[in-house]
Protein: Dipeptide epimerase
Amino acid sequence: MKCSLIHRKIPLKHPFKTALRTVYSVDDLVFKLETDGFVGYGSASPTVAITGDSIEKISDTARYKITPSLSKGVMHQKPSPLPFTGCTSANYLVETALYDLWGKREGKSIASLLGQSYDHLLSDITISMNSAEEMVKDSQQAIENGFSILKIKVGGDLEADMHRLEAICAVLPDTVKLRVDANQGWDAPTAIKIIREYERKGYPIDLIEQPLPAKDLKGMAAVRNAVGLPIMADESIFNSNDVKKVLDLGCADIINIKLAKCGGLTEALHMCSLAEEAGVSCMLGCMMEGPIGILAACQVAASQPIITRIDLDGPMLYERLPGRYATLFKGQDIFIGAAPGLGILDCALEEIGNETLWTVTL
Structure:
């Protein structure tokens, strides 16, 4: 059995800007697991501002804490949760490769093994936080490209955020919905004031995402109780324990699940179960990450009816999608292919300049 970690950079069409950071290209760490004639792939990206996981931390954790614990016996069954390492991105990286191997050995897609419900997903696309004029231009371009759901990044001061939404809504056709993501950028009084103003003006908003800092759960509950628009928790939720807290405190109408934050597919499925028990719907989102991670998220989303919203626009933001996959990304439409595992037809790691960080033979 051989394990390798490859680092490549995937250029973006335009800089990705939020209230937290600006990204010009995706650092994609690809884990390659070869055994018994099968190859499984996983990937993760460093998002220090969100997970605290750097390239070095992900690489060292995967190499020294996770890889040595792998055995050939693990490859012949549905993956179990990996031991907690303190680096969710590294767990996600390796577990995704194990799921890919599992599907390839079974000759079935991950979605079908999990009980596939959908073969088509409808994703929003993110409009980065810029001046109102730039955001209007980007929104119009997205609509021309066929997108009917725009995720609008805000989180500045009240006046600027009101101006952004007013300018965008002035050019929207009736068929387009907005998801407003403040990325923790407001406090409770500001959030209540601005959301009520959005409501008063009748903007076509589907939800408000993470209006307050992640740890301010009481504030989130207060905002939710004070406004009519659905509130979605994102940064407040990393894992199933966080889901329980948010649900117990009544902080959110929707929870956003991201594989890189929770540590992989197994934990994401547990989070879906908790939400379903509580009658709360989910969004399946992504970080600014490579295509293999997006494929894994698509497989989970296609298998879980409780996931009613999709934010998997990463491939639409790349300058060019590297590789070939059974799952097709066509504008807002994601068509889930039936190929085994994650549906990787050609990983094409050589398409973009890359560096092998390490290789270990077990």
About this structure: Residues 241 and 271 are 9 Å apart (CA to CA).
